[in-house]
Design brief:
Blueprint lengths: L5 H10 L4 E2 L13 H9 L16 E2 L10 H7 L4 E2 L9 E2 L8 E2 L9 H4 L2
Parallel strand pairs: 1-2, 2-3, 3-5
Antiparallel strand pairs: 4-5
Helix pairs in contact: 2-3
Length: 120
Amino acid sequence: MCDHHPEIIEEAGRLGWELIGHNETNALRLTEMDGAQERDAVRANNRPASTRLPASARSGWLGAGLAETWNTLDYLAEAAIRYVCDWVNDDQPYLFEIGNPPLVSLPYSVQTNDVPLFRK
């Protein structure tokens, strides 16, 4: 979206909106990539096109398909991502012992995802 519709990114910045990283495509999930590809996909959240927004407006992650590997949280922390919404195991935020400051898991409910719509 950043590359194809920069006007949306600029308007979101003007309005003070926060955007969340969601992988570069739903067609290739992090679990289908090798380690270098996964790291690059996570880092793409902070590529030049998205720097039209302040870092605080692009500090979250909700992975495509909620898919993660054993390395994803480390890559997110390296990329200055501060919170992740992939974990649906609690209704309260909690800290991971990863990153400085620590990465935060924010509650996310599968019921608010688009998946239930497709399974009816």
